[in-house]
Amino acid sequence: MRILFVAQELSYEPQGIMSLSAVLKQAGYDVALTVVNMEDPVAYAAQYWPDILGYSVMTGSQRGYFELNRRIRRVLDPKYTAEGRPLSLSVFGGPHPTFFPEMIAEPGVDGVCIGEGEGALLDLANALEAASAPLREALDNPNIPNWWFKLNGEIVKNPVRPLIQDLSALPHGDRELIYGKHRGLAASRIKHFMSSRGCPYNCTYCFNHAYFEIYRGERRGRQRTVDDVISEVNAVRARWPLEQAVFLDDLFIIHDNWL
């Protein structure tokens, strides 16, 4: 099973893609990344032969990603058909699909992941690996939480699974995936981290109040252990330049004792 993440550009380390890649690699899957402003993503996909094309999408960039996916599939689909192999599956996650899952109706979109993606994408990869066929043919009842699928023209809507409470149980993000592709980010002495997920407040300009409409009843703030955060920072510093650690948390200072 080969998973290819496709990004328009990299301004700093994409925490979601790094976490997803780490979970997939831990399970033994082959993961790669192509970046549009650094190379030809269509040519890269054609030589990589992905089973899954993955896109992490923020609102405002979705139209560009839809077109990019169609460009890639216009090359891959005939190539796979000629080889007699299952077509790759195009799946979308991140903020825009989470809040606007109806984008599943867009041409070329096979699956939309709502909310946290680590368990969802791993379950999808496992299902495809076990079936050795594309999802739309392999699963009569695609009950994989967090996913909406478009199967034979119909949309299957699954509920979300519980949020990951023990964030320290996740492997550290796969920075080699990013730094191996983007030497500028690897050489930068500023590196980005996340030590928590969620926020208890309901600021009107922020997404959290809408996010917890999806995850009703869930605890609205989860932090990694202190030792786990320090371990990751030290591991990065041991391998790459690091003078400043930037934490991208929604709320880094909420618990004084932890801080």
Quick structural gist:
With 259 residues, this protein is an alpha/beta fold.
Strand order of the largest sheet: 2-1-3-4-5-6-7
Under the CATH scheme, which class of the largest domain? Alpha Beta
From the spread of the alpha carbons, the general shape counts as: globular
What is the CATH architecture assignment of the largest domain? Answer: 3-Layer(aba) Sandwich
Give structural attributes:
Rossmann fold; 11 strands; 2 domains; two-stranded parallel sheet; globular; 10 helices; 7-stranded mixed beta sheet; 259 residues; 18% strand; single chain; alpha/beta
Describe the model.
With 259 residues, the protein is of the alpha/beta class. It has two domains: 156 residues, Cobalamin-binding domain (Rossmann fold, 3-Layer(aba) Sandwich); 70 residues, no CATH class. Helices cover 37% and strands 18% of the residues. The strands form three sheets. It has a seven-stranded mixed β-sheet, with helices on both faces. Helix 3 links the parallel strand 3 and strand 4. It is globular and about 60 Å long. The N and C termini lie far apart (40 Å).
Helices and strands, with pairings:
Blueprint: E1 2-7, H1 15-26, E2 30-35, H2 41-48, E3 52-56, H3 62-83, E4 89-93, H4 95-99, E5 111-113, H5 118-131, H6 135-138, E6 147-151, E7 154-157, H7 175-179, H8 183-187, E8 190-193, E9 196-197, H9 208-214, E10 222-223, H10 226-239, E11 244-247
Parallel strand pairs: 1-2, 1-3, 3-4, 4-5, 8-11
Antiparallel strand pairs: 5-6, 6-7, 9-10
Helix pairs in contact: 1-5, 2-3
